[in-house]
Amino acid sequence: MILIRRKKVDTTQERKLITNLVTSTRFCKEILPLTSTRLLKSENSKIAYQWIQSYFNTYKEAPKSNLEKLFDEAMITESDATVELVSDFLLDLSEEYEENEESNIKFEIDQAKSYLKRRNIEVTNEEVKVLLERDKIDKAEEVLKKFSRHKETFGDIVMNITNSVVHGAEFVKEHIVPPTMIIAPWLTDGTINMLYAPRGIGKTWLSLSLAVMVTRKHGVGKRIGPWEVMNTSGCLYIDGEMGEFEMQDRLKTLEKMYGEESEEHPLTLLAASRYAKEYGEQINISTEEYRNAIYQYLFDNDKYYLLILDNLASLTPGLNENSKEDWDPINQWLISLRHLGVSVIIVHHAGKGNQQRGTSGREDALDSIIKLKRPPICGTEQGARFTVMFDKARNIAPCAGLRSFDLHLLEDGSGSLEWTRVRDEEELE
What we know:
Elements: H1 12-23, H2 25-31, H3 43-59, H4 67-77, H5 80-91, H6 93-100, H7 105-133, H8 137-149, H9 154-164, H10 168-171, E1 181-184, E2 187-188, E3 192-197, H11 203-214, E4 223-224, E5 227-229, E6 234-239, H12 244-258, E7 267-271, H13 272-279, H14 288-300, E8 304-310, H15 312-315, H16 324-340, E9 343-349, E10 368-373, E11 385-393, E12 405-411, E13 417-424, H17 425-428
Parallel strand pairs: 3-9, 3-10, 6-7, 6-8, 8-9
Antiparallel strand pairs: 1-2, 1-5, 4-5, 10-11, 11-12, 12-13
């Protein structure tokens, strides 16, 4: 018979961790989800951890002085050998509990998190080393990928969910600030909207007009057809294809129409043409890097409650428009902007069926969808003229502003341009 001498392991930090789990309910809430038997070295620690976890799940608090009760309950399910193995270890903690009760628990939590992160790295390294020694390369790679994916650990998510849930009875009593109406009746902060039309109909003229209108010094009360500015807002306008000269020319025209820009709520342009000249690449929101950078810019600059993306095709080169799977990361990004309080208008092309081009899955999260359609009597020589209609208007009460109407960008007699409401829904029927 060959006797195998086990390597002695230092379990000082594990004992401290178990002691804090016994001591503090707050420690249990934050550390139990981060801990697993995989990360613990000694059998005593593993069994004690499981018992404490069971107690916490049942009573929603740390065992504290109820160690005897915890031990008695554990004896019912564990074998005699297991109970004997851990009994002294667990019951001796009662002395340490009295000493540890007044400790700085925030410091102890930070120390425990650091220890568990280190143990996760050590254990993963050991697992990979064993797999490589056995020539199981694919399995080793899988372990490393899993480790990388779970930097934000399952335990962190459990803790976040626990801290975020709220009972319905409490929720209905909370004071929740209603969304701010930017353009009545459809554009409030934190909404996701789409404006789509066939090419060449004037959708950029309309989206630029909306951007200019809400960023004027005296913007409140400005109108396009039945739509009226109720609150001004800074706007980040990301243009994917227009030349700088043409963009400048249009903005000069719109400034004459709507007046001077507000310093408090500015219009800021991010033009793909200028960006490409400066940095040699296209703005591409189908990549995580660009989405994160735009999010960070909006997060850091809280003047902007409106983002206009003009247009989807030019700002997502390489994206398969018909793939919902390809759209999903962009959709999640748009939802994150909603949580930031930023309203988004996506300018997009109509397809052959005169519907928005590509997967219908992108419509799911949209609050409103505005369609621009060229009237039958209108020719391309008339420039920006179209019928405005809503395909979707979620959570918007029926009103005149949701009815279809015709708009035409016309000279006002003094050489300037203005949006003229030509016909309303009653006349279109």
